[in-house]
Amino acid sequence: MMKKICATLLIFSLIWLPSTALAETPKVAEIKQGQKAPYNGILYNYQANAVLLASKEKGQLECSLQLNHSLAKEKAKCDMLTSTVKASLEATEKKYDAILKIKNEEMERLHKLVMDKPNDYSNWWFAGGFLGGVALSMGIFYAAVQTAK
Asked: Which of 48, 82, 119, 120 could make a disulfide contact with 44, Cβ separation 3.0–4.6 Å?
């Protein structure tokens, strides 16, 4: 029984509702000066005015959508470039920090090396002895050659 009532209501609503959706067609009436409107022009009824407004708004909407799309596109490019520059800056900072750390460690190592043996001149004594020995040997050789003549 309930199915028959639902089917009847459904059929009635399918027939009745589309007939209420029929709209009045837009009408355009031309008026001239001296009639009720004080100017020459075209008089629109409500439906025609709605159609004109919708087409005008549609044009504005399309323009607005294009503008928003272009704005979003440029913002995305700007964000991409900004993030690329930030990433490059971060990489450069990490590289700089690593180089600075290596430099400081080397300076500390050399400082400790110098401070561990501040008055040790054994290397200088060795070099001086070597150079003195070479000079003395050459002097003796020169003297021997001169006396042999």
From this structure: 48
